[in-house]
Design goal:
There is one protein chain. 36% of the residues lie in helices and 23% in strands. It is of the alpha/beta class. It has a single domain, classed as Vaccinia Virus protein VP39 (Rossmann fold, 3-Layer(aba) Sandwich), CATH 3.40.50.150. The strands form 2 sheets. Strands 3-2-1-4-5-9-6 form a 7-stranded mixed beta sheet, sandwiched between helices. It has a two-stranded antiparallel sheet with strand order 7-8. The two termini are 32 Å apart.
């Protein structure tokens, strides 16, 4: 769903053969694969889901040229960004954190910690890209996420959901000692063939895991389906227009 975001950033920054990219929270590796196809040397770090990291390895190996182990020696690390230190050669000149922040309370704190650990691995003046949700009135998925966090925190009427703020990304960059150097907005609609696909797709993000632990999976599926109904079209497809922001910053 975030492919338009990746494409917009890579095009704007002219990602190519001279790019040495460190992807924080790389998940299943799609953004890394897209950069590798443009000629970039890529390293991904993720500690949240071993299963997604396995998928990233599979993608980067299976899509590589015949006879090679992975695209341009791509590396995937399950652990701390500090483990991604380049053993030899130039440091990273691009760091990406594409997991969007700005829709749930506390999501920026974790990003700040990742950036603090990654900054020493990048060269001076390296570009750092942060991503975030746009205004809730322009992100249809926000209402669905609100339901999920309400279930995860039943003592509050709105759970840990909060509206995205205009300066979310800038505040994280400032705390991490980064210098803002541009920004943009990208339309990233979430589209699914039917209701079942939409439920499975959203559950696969992991954003509903806490809700399932606090209640049960049946309850989560029920309320998620109810929240998605306003976004189901007459042909049965589910369509949620969203706007995402990205911030380009530079290391000191």
């Amino acid at each position: 769903m975030l492919v338009p975001l990746y494409e917009a950033v890579y095009e704007r920054l002219e990602v190519g053969s001279g790019t040495r990219l460190l992807g924080l929270g790389c998940g299943s590796g799609l953004a890394l694969l897209m950069a590798a196809r443009r000629g970039a040397s890529v390293t991904g770090v993720d500690s949240s889901s071993p299963e997604q990291l396995d998928l990233a390895r599979e993608r980067l190996v299976s899509d590589a040229a015949p006879g090679t182990r992975a695209w341009h020696g791509a590396r995937l690390i399950d652990g701390d960004p500090a483990d991604a230190a380049v053993p030899a050669g130039p440091a990273y000149n691009l760091v990406t954190a594409f997991q969007p922040i700005g829709c749930m309370a506390g999501d920026s704190e974790g990003l700040g910690e990742l950036l603090a650990a990654a900054a020493p691995l990048a060269e001076r003046g390296a570009r750092v890209v942060l991503a975030g949700w746009g205004p809730p009135e322009r992100c249809s998925t926000s209402s669905v996420l609100r339901v999920a966090t309400k279930l995860a925190d039943p003592l509050r009427s709105t759970g840990s959901w909060r509206p995205a703020r205009r300066d979310d990304l800038e505040e994280v960059a400032q705390r991490a000692g980064l210098r803002p150097d541009g920004s943009g907005r990208v339309a990233c609609p979430f589209g699914y063939a039917d209701m079942d696909s939409a439920v499975r797709g959203l559950l696969s993000t992991g954003l509903f895991d806490a809700a399932a632990e606090a209640t049960d999976q049946v309850q989560v599926d029920k309320e998620l389906t109810e929240a998605l109904h306003p976004h189901q079209r007459s042909d049965g497809t589910v369509w949620m227009p969203n706007i995402f922001r990205y911030l380009i910053a530079r290391t000191a």
